[in-house]
């Protein structure tokens, strides 16, 4: 019951993070200081990705890369921020799920260890009982040897007859 609700909760958080990310995008574009920061971030990102693409495709990397205009830079930066936010939420939820799963596995492992310990204890108890029974069998065999073959065959009858003979005497 808890597991489906937990999974449903994580799905809800993931779904709700998308509108939060778009609201974050809107607010990021409106504040002047933050706007300057994200424009620099977008220009740096543009420079890095363009150089990587040029290296991948085998083009010259020493060519000057034109900077993005401010609107495109702001849009690219807020898109990046939104994606990073959604990715961060998904990453945190993934970590949470892995930890929850690890705790569950640890509980199962502890339960298996306890069951194994119980089986070992039961095995030891049975071994002790077997040794006790072996000892009793040896005692009975010694008693039977002392009485001979008649003592083995009439073990119960012999005891009752001896008891009767002692009572009548």
From TrEMBL:
<dbReference type="GO" id="GO:0005739">
    <property type="term" value="C:mitochondrion"/>
</dbReference>
<dbReference type="Pfam" id="PF07047">
    <property type="entry name" value="OPA3"/>
</dbReference>
<dbReference type="GO" id="GO:0019216">
    <property type="term" value="P:regulation of lipid metabolic process"/>
</dbReference>
<feature type="coiled-coil region">
    <location>
        <begin position="99"/>
        <end position="143"/>
    </location>
</feature>
<keyword id="KW-0175">Coiled coil</keyword>
<comment type="similarity">
    <text>Belongs to the OPA3 family.</text>
</comment>
<dbReference type="InterPro" id="IPR010754">
    <property type="entry name" value="OPA3-like"/>
</dbReference>
<protein>
    <recommendedName>
        <fullName>OPA3-like protein</fullName>
    </recommendedName>
</protein>
């Amino acid at each position: 019951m808890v597991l489906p609700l937990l999974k449903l909760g994580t799905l809800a958080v993931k779904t709700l993070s998308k509108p939060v990310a778009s609201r974050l995008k809107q607010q990021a574009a409106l504040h002047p200081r933050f706007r300057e920061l994200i424009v620099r971030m977008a220009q740096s990102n543009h420079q890095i990705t363009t150089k990587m693409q040029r290296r991948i495709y085998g083009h010259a990397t020493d060519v000057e890369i034109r900077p993005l205009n401010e609107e495109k830079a702001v849009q690219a930066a807020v898109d990046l921020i939104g994606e990073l936010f959604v990715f961060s939420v998904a990453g945190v939820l993934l970590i949470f799920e892995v930890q929850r799963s690890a705790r569950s596995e640890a509980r199962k492992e502890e339960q298996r260890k306890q069951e194994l310990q119980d089986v070992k204890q039961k095995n030891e108890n049975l071994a002790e009982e077997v040794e006790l029974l072996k000892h009793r069998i040896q005692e009975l065999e010694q008693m039977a040897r002392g009485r001979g073959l008649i003592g083995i065959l009439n073990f119960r009858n012999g005891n009752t007859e001896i008891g009767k003979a002692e009572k009548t005497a």
